[in-house]
Amino acid sequence: MKSTRVLMLAFLGLYAGACATPALRNGGDGESANYIYGWTLLMMGWLPPYIFAWMANPLMLAGWGAYLFRCYRTARVIGLVAFIFALTTWYLLEPASLFIGYFLWQASAAALTACAYLAAEGVRKTKPATADLDAVDSLPIGPEEDPASPSQTLTFATGAGDLEG
Q: Which positions make up the signal peptide (predicted)?
């Protein structure tokens, strides 16, 4: 479970880094370019046409909440959906206008998904088995405990020649 804590801290660090760094370039090249920081996009990104990409933010918040409440499978699905929503940015904008903040944001969605996946796998591996097959084999079959006794052996006819009248 230590790896999931590291990944959750990575998620938080990546998301904070995405908010603190330029995520998009809006017009111009070089010195005349206008850079938009991640925190600005977080506050204003819900406006059309960026709403589909922005929806990854509340989804990541919901995924983080599901993770904290130990609903790891739910967090994994929400994280994956958030990752896909964040990918819609490639459809909305030219790749040349994307900066480090965007890539940190996308990586934070991937980190949330990976963290929830590892946590779900860890829970699955540590849960006890629900059925003990060895105990089933030791159950008595009937009044006699020997399953090979003649009174409990079943024979089946395999054809017309096997039947004796």
A: 1-20
Q: How much is the average pLDDT of 103-128?
A: 88
Residue 27's pLDDT band (cuts 50, 70, 90): confident
Residue 114 covered by a domain: yes
Instruction: Give the residue numbers spanning the domain of 64.
Output: 45-127
Token representation of residue 6: 């590291």
φ/ψ (deg, to 5) at 131: -135, 135
Q: Is residue 15 part of a domain?
A: no
Residue 118 to residue 76: CA distance in whole angstroms: 9
| Block residue for tokens 């880094």 | 17
Number of domains within the chain: 1
For CA atoms 39, 43, 44, 49, give the dihedral sign. positive
Token pair recorded at residue 164: 């004796």
pLDDT at 138: 58
Which residue would you say has higher pLDDT here, 97 or 149?
97
Residue 100 lies in a domain: yes
Specify the long-range contacts of residues 73-76, CB closer than 8 Å, at least 24 apart: 73/116, 73/120, 75/112, 75/115, 75/116, 75/119, 75/120, 76/113, 76/116, 76/117, 76/120
Q: Does the predicted model carry a pTM greater than 0.85? A: no
